[in-house]
Design a protein that fits this description.
Length: 328
């Protein structure tokens, strides 16, 4: 059995594959595979691990319907046509649970960096501008006692809220399809409408998956409802916010600041005006970029492959109904 891996992943996952007697090939060039290259590589293998920006669309799936599993080195699966994979009886696995703490840390980091204009102040030092003390210049804001609004209160959102409550005694509002009773009990979180979340939150942090419903959700209309003192944080997917509308909202003072670990498009161009704004902090999608978390992600990705290649249901399926399809 052979596996193709679209990027270099941590040794923790590779060791599991070796120990299971599974051969693998890693793509080691510092560029993304073209769709044609991915198809050609996948046709020579029994499974693939996707670690990067590859799109698994219907064309790919029909060209590679022999695959026993598509294992994602990520929690997000918006680049995969899940419905088509299920029709073709191809299980798709991801890495749930293990990314929550690291991603929440990144959201918390961005909240603080924006509130204190940290990236801007660092650039001032680099530009030789730290030469005179001005008591009223470049001031930030404090998060203590403010209201945190979580859009998508799942595991990551809960971890972000827990940090904000513990460190800054923040009130937590959230907008979900369903109630998160655990968060309501543990953090006194309150579920509100989307408009109410926008109007009353001092910091809004996005932790939802990218779907047709959430794509472009934070647009000009949404930003216009937010407080002029509000901070917008997105560590989920860049397409959830409209970047042109976000830029305009910041330039016009419709909102106070923004912290992004994901951008739209991604990667962000180095001349993007957001990178020059004092009240904006941008990171290059590093939400899960810790040794511990990436090791855990590689482990789960490998476990999905090992199970599938041994004829067993994968432990972390995105489309568990594929097994109902197989058995029907």
């Amino acid at each position: 059995m052979k596996v193709f891996i679209t990027n270099i992943i941590p040794e923790a996952g590779l060791k599991l594959l070796r120990d299971a007697g599974i051969e693998f090939e890693e793509w080691k060039e510092r560029r993304n595979l073209t769709p044609k290259e991915l198809i050609e590589k996948s046709k020579k293998n029994d499974a693939i691990i996707i670690a990067g920006y590859s799109v698994i669309d219907a064309h790919f799936l029909h060209e590679c319907k022999h695959l026993k599993v598509i294992s994602l080195h990520s929690v997000g699966f918006d680049r995969v046509d899940i419905a088509e994979a299920t029709k073709l009886k191809i299980p798709v696995g991801n890495t749930p649970g293990v990314v929550s703490a690291a991603t929440a840390d990144t959201a918390f980091l961005l909240m603080l960096a924006v509130s204190r204009k940290a990236f801007y102040q660092y650039r001032r030092i680099m530009n030789g501008e730290w030469n005179f003390f001005e008591p009223t210049a470049g001031l930030g804001v404090e998060p203590y006692g403010k209201t945190l609004g979580i859009y998508g209160l799942g595991n990551i959102g809960f971890e972000m809220a827990k940090r904000c409550v513990g460190a800054y005694n923040m009130k937590v509002l959230y907008h979900n399809r369903n109630h998160n009773e655990y968060a309501e009990r543990e953090l006194k979180a309150e579920m509100v409408s989307f408009d109410e979340l926008l109007k009353t939150s001092d910091i809004i942090s996005v932790h939802t998956v990218l779907t047709d419903e959430t794509k472009g959700k934070f647009d000009k209309s949404a930003f216009s409802l937010m407080k002029p003192s509000a901070i917008f944080i997105n560590t989920a997917r860049g397409a959830i916010h409209n970047e042109e509308d976000l830029t305009e909202a910041l330039q016009k003072g419709t909102i106070w600041g923004a912290g992004l670990d994901v951008t739209n498009p991604e990667p962000m161009a180095p001349d993007n005006v957001l990178l020059t704004m004092p009240n904006v902090a941008v990171l290059p999608h590093i939400g899960t970029a810790t040794i511990e978390t990436r090791d855990a992600m590689a482990t789960l990705a490998a476990q999905n492959v090992i199970a599938a290649l041994n004829g067993h249901p994968i432990p972390y399926p995105v489309n568990p109904e594929v097994y109902d399809t197989v058995n029907s």
